[in-house]
Every structure is written in structure tokens, then in C-alpha cells.
Design brief:
eight-stranded parallel β-barrel; TIM Barrel; alpha/beta; seven-stranded mixed β-sheet; globular; 41% helix; 2 domains; Nucleoside Triphosphate Pyrophosphohydrolase; 432 residues; 24% strand; 16 helices
Length: 432
């Protein structure tokens, strides 16, 4: 599928669910027998005006009579079909759902020959034998999401900010670590099935938390000024501070790259800039052009915002295309300009954070980064750990957004960050 096809091709969408329930203390899964003799999950086409979620809930109820609520995102598959000689981009998305009542399913659609709940292991075995190959990851993904939900790790672990007391952070991590790693593995399995063309980074072991040297905060710091009202004088002063305090890098807006390069000339301080900032809504070609202009102005590194909306709805193909466009531009210079991909973790579910990190590195990124600083939350230990585990040995992690104390900075480094983007550099240094 070419880059232009992603934008211009006609699209058909369908949605449904992997529905679970507890019966007699055991987990059961809702399956259907479809008209092709396959075992599958209830799903069907989106109607005009529906969201993915609305269509998924409606289709489950229409096909099986089961009323459910959404508890997570299993994933999305895409493939090409033909309609009347025209190529069509088919998109199918499944959600994890929990049955709301104890009623038994009754197949109610012409294309469904049977609907029934089976115990988890039996349902998985039947799906493995008679199901569709492109959903073979669904049980592993559902199992990881349910473990995350049942452990209440969204509230007990992921909600913790970097300033939380170390004892509280460590206690939450001890509870969440196994499920965090399980979720990353499930996302890796999902992408291997849905995006076989991506060369995912090899899984490498990573021990967290890790030891952090005394001078680690200073050496990881990128002193940042990305306020839209920032003046050239503000940028020059930021650069003078970085030179005076021997900081490794400043991060400024694209129009200020040349100003910053002049201000730090001969000092060893490098200049980073941002692309697609702050929402990642530009086209891939527009981001590529931004990157080329930034590199021509002298940028030493690039932080690009990936298309957040695409990642949030499981469209990893569009996401990879955007990252690849900027990476290709960065490699036109020798040595290549390192590229960091900003995921905007607070806009994403934890599995989307893991997938965004994996896809970014598969598309050539050198770093993955948490946040722009313009969303509802910045860097958090849980998201940094997810990203670090996903890219261990293949890329590095930059934490940014809300890093205002030395304790927060050290906590994020312990959980896998290699760089720290902060607009509070002098405050962090004053705490030395």
C-alpha cells in the first residue's frame, strides 16, 4: 500500500468485540460461527454517524443479543479488497468488552450461524483451530488488558506522577511490572500479525528501576523553550544559560534554530527542534518538508510529533508512514540527524503507548518521547517504563513534560529515560 493510497483510497470500516464474562468463577468468551464455517467474534460495518465504539457495541448486540460495555482496544487489522473493480482499504477494529447481563447469546443475524460463550481455554483452542489467522493475537491481547484492568494499574500505577514518593512508586511498580511486560509482549505479537512488513525491534531484557549516577540529570537534560510567544531574545538567553552551565542541548521552535545555532556556536551545545508540533496533524509530506528545512537551518536533532489521532484509533500504518517520512529526510545528511518521536502518552491507552514505541523504532526512529507539554499530563514513570521495555536495546527514551524537580528527573531516569526535556533546567541545577 503506497503513501498516496493511505490518503486517497476508498475505506470500508467494521467493528466488533471480544466479549468476556465471569461464570461460576471462570472466564468465558463469546464466539460466533459465521456463514463461511469459521469461528470468529461478532462484528459488522459502521453506519453513517457512528463511532468505532458505537458500531462495535451495536453489532455485538445485533448479532448475538448480548449487551456489553467496552473495556479496552484489542486491535485493528487492514487489508485490501475489490468492490466493482475498485481497490478498497478494509479496516476492522475489535474492542475488549465485558458482558453486562447474564443472558445467553442468541444469534440474530443472517450471516451468523451460532453464538455461544465458551470457557477461556476452550474458546482459544477452538479459535486457533477454526478462526481467522489475522486475529490470532486477540486472546493474548485480551488477557493482558484484563490483567491490567483487574490490577487497577491505570489508577494505582500509571496515574503516579514523577514527583510521587519513591517508596510509593516502587510499591506500585512491584505490583505492575509483570503485567506491564505482558502487555508489551502482547502488543509485539499483535503488530507481528497485523503489520508483518514492519521490522520490529528485537525483544531485549531490561531491568527496572536502574541505577542513576549523580551527574545523570545534567548530562541528560535538554533545556527547552517552545512557548509560541517566545522571542529571539528569550531564545538567546536560553542558549547562553546552556553554554554557561555546560548543558548538552537546547530545544527550540523551528524558526529559532538558526538563532540558537549562532548563540551556541563553538560551545559544544547542540540544538534540537520540533516537527509537527504540537498536535501531529500535518501530512507526512508536510512533516518531511519541515524536517528538511530544520536540518538546512542547522538542527542537530529532531523531535517530531507523530499523528496522535491515528495511533489512538489503532492506525499504525499511517503512523509509521509519518515517522518514516521524517527519518528519510534526516538520513539525507551525513551523519544522519537523530529523530525522536513524541507519542503524547497522556492521550493514549497504555497498549497504544507500547505500540507507538514499537512502530516508531521499526520506522527508523532513534528515540521515543513521552509528551509535548501541551496535553493534560506530561512524563510519568509508568509510560516511560512501557516505552523503555518496548524499545530496549534498539532505541532510547526521552521523558518530557512537567519535569520541575530533581527528584522527578531522577525517578524518570531510573525507569528508563535517557534524555529529559524540561523548561525548568536552572531550577533542576539549583537543586544540585
Amino acid at each position: 500500500m503506497g503513501a498516496d493510497d493511505v490518503v486517497t483510497m476508498r475505506v470500508e470500516r467494521a467493528a466488533g468485540g471480544v466479549v468476556v464474562r465471569q461464570r461460576n468463577g471462570a472466564r468465558e468468551v463469546l464466539l460466533i460461527d459465521d456463514q463461511y464455517g469459521k469461528v470468529s467474534f461478532p462484528k459488522g460495518h459502521l453506519e453513517p454517524g457512528e463511532s468505532w465504539e458505537q458500531a462495535a457495541l451495536r453489532e455485538v448486540q445485533e448479532e448475538t443479543g448480548v449487551i456489553a460495555r467496552i473495556a479496552g482496544d484489542i486491535g485493528r487489522v487492514e487489508y485490501l479488497i475489490e468492490r466493482g473493480g475498485e481497490r478498497v482499504r478494509k479496516q476492522v477494529r475489535l474492542f475488549l468488552m465485558v458482558a453486562e447481563d447474564g443472558s445467553e447469546p442468541v444469534h440474530q443475524a443472517e450471516e451468523v450461524n451460532g453464538a455461544y460463550f465458551l470457557p477461556w481455554d476452550e474458546a482459544k483452542r477452538r479459535h486457533d483451530e477454526r478462526g481467522y489467522e489475522n486475529w490470532r493475537f486477540a486472546f493474548a491481547k485480551a488477557d493482558a488488558l484484563l490483567a491490567w484492568r483487574d490490577g487497577r494499574f491505570e489508577e494505582a500505577w500509571r496515574a503516579l506522577g514523577p514527583d510521587a514518593p519513591w517508596e510509593q512508586v516502587m510499591g506500585a511498580w512491584r505490583d505492575a511490572e509483570a503485567v506491564t511486560r505482558k502487555l508489551v509482549d502482547a502488543c509485539r505479537e499483535e503488530l507481528a500479525v497485523t503489520c508483518p512488513e514492519l521490522h520490529l525491534p528485537d525483544a531485549k531484557s531490561l531491568v527496572l528501576p536502574r541505577e542513576v549516577a549523580e551527574d545523570a540529570v545534567r548530562s541528560a537534560m535538554e533545556s527547552t523553550l517552545l512557548k509560541p510567544e517566545a522571542s529571539e531574545i528569550d531564545v538567546q538567553n536560553l542558549c547562553l544559560e546552556a553554554v554557561h552551565h555546560h548543558l548538552p542541548m537546547v530545544c527550540v521552535s523551528p524558526r529559532h534554530v538558526a538563532v540558537a545555532k549562532r548563540a551556541v556556536a563553538g560551545s559544544g551545545v547542540r540544538v534540537c527542534t520540533v516537527i509537527g508540533f504540537p498536535h501531529g496533524t500535518q501530512t507526512a509530506n508536510a512533516m518531511r518538508q519541515e524536517a528538511l528545512e530544520a536540518i538546512a537551518a542547522g538542527a542537530d536533532e529532531i523531535d517530531m510529533v507523530g499523528p496522535i489521532g491515528a495511533l489512538a484509533e489503532g492506525d499504525v500504518w499511517t503512523y509509521a508512514q509519518a515517522v518514516r517520512a521524517v527519518v528519510e529526510a534526516s538520513r539525507l545528511r551525513f551523519p544522519p540527524v537523530p529523530v525522536k518521536v513524541i507519542l503524547e502518552t497522556s492521550a493514549l491507552q497504555p497498549d497504544a503507548v507500547a505500540k507507538g514505541a514499537l512502530v516508531s523504532v521499526a520506522a527508523g526512529a532513534d528515540f521515543v518521547k513521552t509528551s509535548t507539554g501541551y496535553h493534560k499530563a506530561g512524563a510519568r514513570p509508568a509510560d516511560v517504563a512501557l516505552m523503555a521495555i518496548a524499545v530496549a536495546g534498539s532505541a532510547r527514551v526521552k521523558a518530557s513534560g512537567g519535569i520541575r524537580t530533581r527528584a522527578a528527573a531522577r525517578n524518570l531516569l531510573r525507569f528508563g529515560a535517557d534524555r529529559l526535556g524540561t523548561s525548568s533546567a536552572l531550577k533542576l541545577l539549583d537543586e544540585d
